[in-house]
Amino acid sequence: MARTRHVIAVDVGGTETKAALISGVGDAGPGRPPTTLAQRRRPTRPTGDAVVEDVAALVADLRAAGPHPVDAVGLVVPGIVDEPTGTGVYSANLGWRDYPFTKNLEAATGARVAFGHDVRAGGLAELRLGNARDLRNAVIMPIGTGIAAALVVDHRVIDAPGEIGHVDVGHPDPCGCGQTGCVEARAGSAAIARRYGERANTRVSGAAEVAARLRAGDPDAAITWHEAVDALAKGILLVAALLGPEAVVLGGGLALAGPLLTDPLTRRLDELVTFQRRPELRLAALGDEAGCLGAALLAINMLEET
Amino acid sequence: MARTRHVIAVDVGGTETKAALISGVGDAGPGRPPTTLAQRRRPTRPTGDAVVEDVAALVADLRAAGPHPVDAVGLVVPGIVDEPTGTGVYSANLGWRDYPFTKNLEAATGARVAFGHDVRAGGLAELRLGNARDLRNAVIMPIGTGIAAALVVDHRVIDAPGEIGHVDVGHPDPCGCGQTGCVEARAGSAAIARRYGERANTRVSGAAEVAARLRAGDPDAAITWHEAVDALAKGILLVAALLGPEAVVLGGGLALAGPLLTDPLTRRLDELVTFQRRPELRLAALGDEAGCLGAALLAINMLEET
User: Region entry Disordered: which residue ranges (chains A, B) (predicted)?
Assistant: First the structure.
């Protein structure tokens, strides 16, 4: 039987960094989920050096929060990530390129570091602990300002970019990535808020407000929402043709809309599907804790493997 | 050290079935490729029962062709395949649905059967023995009448449909699958021949003749070819965003065009790429033997695992 490990898990987000002291065992099955013993949050500062400095301070703080020595640190970051070498290859928002996170954080903390990608780690947590536990092939897709996916094939999160937010689904709108037609340019939460605002000539606080106006019968909200659903459906169908997932597990802020999102998305998929298996739609279970839990699993798995 | 195995490999194609008696060892590395001792070909007859009957006859014939007892049969078929259960889920051309190939061929031959998908098995052969040997993430994409791909992630062919021929790349043409905009509807070899014929108001024998006319400066051939290349490039970019392959290995009849295909495809990818890593383009090494070699590897791997 696997040992109980004590790890510090850190999820570096675009605006906020979450850290947690977590205990758990390798190969955590249902009924033996990791336990979060303490949590911390702080704003994220750009550049790799600032992130390592702040994460090292969080690690020192959380080391003092529990009675056990810490066995390892799990760190997940956004952007393009090279997991085997522990490198943050690129983040436009946070300003790094080929930054050696594992090496520098190990030097700053003296702890062993497991390094990964935030979306893939969150997907790993949904796969092991959340709403994808029974799935062999799945797409776990958090929808926030950005849209990306963890791709599960044969019960494993594969090491692949999963940039479903940046596949061209045929609409004419430009995207920040340089392409036109991206899923994210119509279905990302910031795009939904911006596009509704332009259409209704007003300002809204975010996609949740657009959802509220949709519930209240606002026709501009209905059009904006329909265009978002259409882009999501077309992106999901592309992935279905290539990877054949049994289910798409929707997470992130937009999934808080629940059936307001999944009902029209199911209908649109049914309209568009031809030869593909239409994947079941599910909502993610772990909310914004998925990234930290996934980082903890990466750290525990690293300890089990060595 | 792994034992040398003697297997019969069968690749059921849409029009022709190829079979071979092959000897090899598990985990065949460079320098220890499988050896083909005898080969047979015959036309493919539709329906699962006819395929099993004909394959059993080929197996009996090849069993008599070599001095060693045969350890197993590897069978690969087109269409939608469920490898773990040994089932041919669906083939429009060959007329089966949920047909139990492994069970029925084992009953007909008395041999153990390893069952797989023709494109994925061909990709496995390119990965272990051909032009993808050094690649960690790759797309191995035979282009014939149909277009599909074996998807390689972390040195493994993943168990996924890989239907890159049926992703929507935004053109208005209908496809036999029921969608519009499919890669195959512009870049499949039958589509190239048909679309050239319509444009030039003539008949050609196939895509190779369109390629010959392109070399000779025919402007209708140039337009048809350019549209095929454009569809292929957009399909490859979708896969690049999701899976990040280092290279795309092009096979099948259309890849016999060589630089006439890869040069404009490289240029078009360079024009379209934004954030994605532009995959290297390569030509497959194994030609139409890839499917049989892959079927042999499936059989040898099955024997090694048990």
Answer: 24-48
Q: What is the pLDDT of residues A169-185, one digit of tens each?
A: 999 999 988 999 999 99
Same domain, A27 and A111: yes
pLDDT tens, position by position, B79-115: 889 999 999 998 888 989 999 999 999 999 999 999 9
Q: Tell me, yes or no, if A123 comes closer than 8 A to chain B by beta carbon.
A: no
Tokens of A2: 């696997």
Q: Are A159 and B182 in contact (CB under 8 A)?
A: no
- Residues A82-87: what's their mean pLDDT? 94
In residues, how long is chain A?
306
Contact between chains at B167 and A243 (C-beta distance less than 8 A): no
Cβ proximity of A301 and A25 under 8 Å: no
Q: How far apart are CA B261 and CA B144, in angstroms?
A: 13
B246–A contact, CB cutoff 8 A: no
Domain at B119, CATH number: 3.30.420.40
Residues B295, B121: contact at Cβ < 8 Å? Answer: yes
A129 belongs to a structural domain: no
d(CA B161, CA A244): 6
Complex prediction ipTM: 0.92
Mean pLDDT of A224-242: 97
Contacts with A153 from chain B: Cβ below 8 Å: 153, 158-160
> Per-residue pLDDT tens for B276-297?
789 999 999 999 899 999 999 9
Kindly tell me if the per-residue pLDDT of A30 is higher than 60.
Answer: no
Query: What whole-number distance in Å separates Cα of residue A208 and Cα of residue A145?
Result: 12
Residues in chain B, total: 306
Rounded mean pLDDT of chain B? Answer: 94
Instruction: Pick left, alpha or beta for residue B103 (phi over 0 → left; psi -120 to 50 → alpha; otherwise beta).
Output: alpha
The answer to whether A242 contacts B167, with C-beta atoms less than 8 Å apart, is yes
Q: Which tokens sit at B77?
A: 């078929």
End-to-end CA distance of chain B, in Å? 15
Structural domain of B266: 135-284
Find out whether B91 and B79 touch, Cβ atoms under 8 Å: yes
pLDDT at position B31 over 80: no
Residue A108 lies in a domain: yes
Among chain B residues, the shortest Cα distance to A162 is held by B242
pLDDT of amino acid B60 = 97
Indicate if the pLDDT at residue A20 is higher than 60.
yes
User: How far is B245 from chain A, CA to nearest CA, in Å?
Assistant: 8
Residue B28 has pLDDT above 70, yes or no: no
B150 and B94 in a common domain: no
Residues 148-177 of B with CB under 8 A from A: 149, 151, 153-154, 158-164, 166-170, 177
Residues in chain B with CB shorter than 8 Å from the CB of A239 are: 242
Which residues in chain B are contacts of A154 at CB distance < 8 A? 158-159
